[in-house]
User: Which sequence fits this backbone?
């Protein structure tokens, strides 16, 4: 009877027990709230990981020739283990909605009515079965290759070589064929979306505005995100509602994907357009690197333009149609070439101007834009004539300078809001500010980071697979759930899916609020001429304004 069960059962009992345990742990809170579907994906991946570890453990035990339990004891131990895991799974599933609502309360969100177990279970099963299908396809391919190799080489060598060849072949099929087809389809779809000309995005009539008939940059080739960015520019009259001093219309220049072929050609056009519209006569010049789709957060530049009464010029260049996550999958250096070409073109011209006549030059970027903005220049190339600084928001976890600064922070300062040296060059801020504080005054070159402790794009760490991230230590960020605990493998899966969930409200997760941009630009650029009452009124405006619509 035991032999019959062993032959017909499709799954490993030990794997299912370990998978059930991981299933339970996956219900614990992450950095941002999850929908039922995303919880199902997290649970399915975690279950598959646990199952794989269980199967691998049994295989290793047998390979090493360790003593085996008798069939009777094995059955009893499996029944006990399965009962314990199922009990834990039910208990954690029961507590899951409470954990999610605790996290939602931290983010000022309405409590969720309740997690739907059937939805979670169905999605988890589909994810698990898909992974199992891929796994068994790999095993099928490897068996064929190993069987062929056994004819020519010793068994142990054939197993090792067969597994290596199978992995290379299997990955080539997935990455070179399936992934490429999906990527091309996505690129085509997002390119068509980018070409849409929305009714509210009207071509500028003023010849001194980018996109007008007199502009060097075509309105039709600007792209959807470029037209949105240019159309959202405030007028001097709108800015004048908050100050009695003189205001002017801010300058915005955007280079879409279709305006030229090479990054160098696009950068040259950007410089010519900046010169044409008088950007180098402004007080501030911002090189803003967009996200993967070419999107620039509406809340990011607007507060700066108000703070400096319109005396600001901003330039940006698109390098992709794809969302940041897909852009990162395509190529680690995706977008760097465009960012470097734009910086080099503008910096070379800017550095040739008289120091007392040129604008202050800052870099800016959100998410993938922050990563590529950081990679756009080499500090050693500008050390003799440095720019004025950089403001990077929601820096991705792969940003090397951010990693280095965080790792070398002042002892005792938390990883989610580090202090670096005396604060004269690098400062960090979150929802509660931080850029205004430093043991020493701001220097001439200033590097500022705005990051939320609940931002998974910033605080995802592949090493959480096997070790606890430092940002989980006490004290924790004000927007991180006290119920968030570290579990090997599971925590990494949770954080990876949190990056894609997008369920946090403004001011939490990877959704940065206009008022926090306002506070950061204020501390970083120190605009003059404002009274405390005017600044308070302006800050209230950015606390209440909705820049994203329905």
Assistant:
């Amino acid at each position: 009877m035991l032999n019959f069960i062993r032959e017909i059962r499709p799954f490993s009992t030990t794997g299912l027990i370990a998978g059930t345990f991981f299933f339970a742990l996956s219900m614990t809170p992450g950095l941002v709230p999850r929908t039922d579907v995303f919880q199902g994906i997290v649970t399915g991946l975690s279950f598959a990981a646990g199952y794989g570890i269980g199967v691998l453990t049994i295989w290793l035990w047998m390979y090493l020739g360790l003593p085996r339990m008798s069939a009777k004891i094995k059955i009893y131990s499996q029944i006990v283990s399965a009962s314990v895991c199922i009990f834990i799974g039910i208990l954690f599933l029961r507590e899951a909605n409470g954990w999610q609502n605790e996290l939602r309360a931290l983010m000022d969100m309405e409590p969720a009515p309740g997690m739907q177990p059937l939805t979670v279970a169905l999605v988890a099963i589909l994810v698990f079965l898909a992974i199992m299908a891929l796994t068994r396809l790999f095993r099928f391919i490897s068996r064929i290759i190993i069987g062929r190799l056994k004819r020519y080489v010793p068994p142990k060598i054939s197993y090792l070589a067969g597994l290596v060849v199978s992995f290379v072949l299997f990955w080539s099929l997935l990455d070179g064929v399936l992934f490429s087809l999906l990527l091309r389809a996505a690129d085509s779809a997002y390119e068509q979306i980018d070409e849409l000309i929305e009714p509210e995005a009207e071509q500028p009539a003023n010849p001194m505005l980018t996109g007008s008939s007199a502009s060097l940059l075509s309105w039709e080739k600007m792209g959807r995100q470029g037209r949105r960015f240019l159309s959202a520019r405030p007028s001097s009259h709108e800015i004048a509602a908050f100050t009695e001093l003189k205001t002017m219309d801010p300058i915005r220049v955007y280079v879409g994907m279709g305006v030229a072929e090479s990054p160098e050609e696009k950068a040259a056009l950007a410089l010519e357009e900046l010169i044409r519209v008088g950007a180098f006569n402004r007080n501030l010049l911002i090189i803003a690197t967009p996200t993967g789709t070419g999107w620039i957060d509406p809340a990011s530049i607007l507060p700066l333009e108000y703070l400096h009464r319109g005396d600001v010029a901003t330039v940006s260049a698109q390098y992709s149609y794809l969302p940041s996550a897909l852009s990162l999958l395509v190529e680690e250096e995706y977008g760097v070439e465009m960012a470097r070409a734009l910086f080099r073109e503008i910096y070379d011209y800017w550095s040739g101007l008289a120091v007392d006549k040129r604008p202050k030059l800052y870099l800016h970027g959100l998410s993938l834009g922050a990563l590529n903005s950081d990679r756009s220049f080499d500090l050693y190339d500008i050390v003799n004539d440095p720019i004025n600084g950089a403001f990077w928001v929601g820096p991705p976890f792969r940003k090397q300078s951010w990693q280095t600064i965080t790792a070398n922070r002042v002892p005792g300062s938390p990883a989610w809001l580090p202090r670096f040296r005396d604060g004269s060059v690098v400062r960090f801020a979150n929802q509660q500010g931080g850029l205004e504080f430093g043991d020493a005054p701001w220097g001439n070159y200033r590097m500022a980071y705005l990051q939320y402790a609940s931002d998974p794009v910033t605080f995802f760490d592949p090493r959480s697979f096997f070790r606890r991230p430092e940002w989980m230590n006490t004290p924790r960020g004000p927007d991180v759930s006290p119920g968030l605990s570290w579990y090997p493998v599971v925590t990494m899966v949770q954080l990876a899916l949190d990056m894609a969930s997008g369920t946090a409200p403004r001011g939490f997760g990877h959704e940065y609020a206009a008022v926090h941009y306002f506070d950061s630009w204020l501390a970083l650029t120190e605009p003059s001429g404002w009274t405390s009452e005017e600044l308070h009124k302006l800050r209230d405006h950015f606390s209440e304004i909705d820049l994203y619509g329905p």
The radius of gyration is 27 Å. The longest strand covers residues 360-366. Confidence is low (pLDDT under 50) at residues 1-9. Residues 221 and 259 are 6 Å apart (CA to CA).
